[in-house]
Sequence to fold (480 residues):
Amino acid sequence: MLHRLLRSPRRQRAGGASSLPSFLGLVLAVAAVVYLPLPALTVRVDPERPAATSLPWLSARQGQIVDSEGRTVLLRGFNDDALLQIGGAPTPPPLTEADAALMQAEGFDVVRLPISWSLLEPAPGRFSRSYLHQIAALVARCARHHLYVVLDMHTEDFGVGFGGSGAPAWLSVPGVPDLHLPFLGSDWQRHTSPAVNAALAYFWLYPNWQRLYWQAWDKVAVEFRGDSAVAGYDLYNEPHPFPVPPAIFETQVLWPFYATGIQDLARVDPNHLFIVEGDLFGDLPTAIRPLAARDLVYSTHLYSGSILAPSFEGNRGPLQAELEEGLQEARQLPAAYWAGELGIDRGRPIAAAWARAEISLSNQFLTGWAWWQWNDPAGWGVKQGQGPADTAWLDVLAQPFVRAAPGTLSGLRYQPETETLTATVQNQGPEGLVLVSWPASAGAPKSLSSCAMPTSSYVPVSGELALKLSTPRCEIKIQG
Fold:
């Protein structure tokens, strides 16, 4: 999860007359790296998808996530860290069958599942079959409730040896102190630790640790290459550039890193979405280097107004600017777009208004997302530990939407005050079948469009309404 990273001013060091030529040379070199066109990166991916297991295979086409029936798909759901190791913290609460059933009934269709390199490879070169089986069991549990799973090799503050998540404790730079200063909170202790930043620098600047990382991913890809319930692989959580200047890091390090990883994984699993994230550097944009790869998805994390300033006070302009920036970066790659994280502490007075604004924007721009998170003792989740779900908060997040539509989807809008969902679908395929997420808590839906008829009675536990379209262009209107 994104913590309170602040935008740091870029400092210039004054130099004497003798340093001016070398300083200008450095400036010109940096400018050349950042602003001159760089050759696009290309990775060949040739899918070999077997028959779907439980859910249709997903791929990316013309900037959209689509299923094997050719329908545009919106993935909306939750992060859940049931299988994530965070330093010496207690084991997170499990994601139970009842949790998955409730997500399904409330119309959600995806779980972003953070997994741990540290648990996957507890000792150098020794990979845990038990941990892979735990992941597989949770994927199967979600699939039984029509929930796709995005597997996210989660990294924060490099690894568990420093109280974060990601790399195993046996991976560190020898001799660099992990300082703990009494006036800093636990998050900033990790963010500013010399040992953490030395490990991150080594990871990004030297390829041997990256090879270990992709070897760990290979084990996951081999396990799930035939499982269509896995939507895709979120390859690295929230990369950030320290100590390399951001634009240089992005163009020279980050995008080549992704290209190498996709090329490696595609040898063992060319069948899933490859999800890449932009640079985590406050709310500054990411410099994009074109990356041509099949089934590529670009992901950003949306925290403007909830963590990043300015605090939300009803003006959704900064929220829209953040989302549009991510969409523009996705087009530059090019890739489909999906927000892997967004969230707010539900105890804040602005929480419900902020959440509704973000969901309204996701309808306007036809984007999917995974809320941070389902179960979080700190107050960010629908659940807190072993207690029941906060149904009032869940009602804020569980809004009807079109989850799968043939052809072109536009005009998606939900009006909570009238409990009315509207959307336009045109140029649909021969089947003309639209899937609508309709939360059980919203009551039984009724189609008000003569061109969109339910194929069967609505079953609340399914969280879904199937509509058969009878015209090439249909304006859908459904009311609770």
About this structure: The mean pLDDT is 91. The longest helix spans residues 246-268.
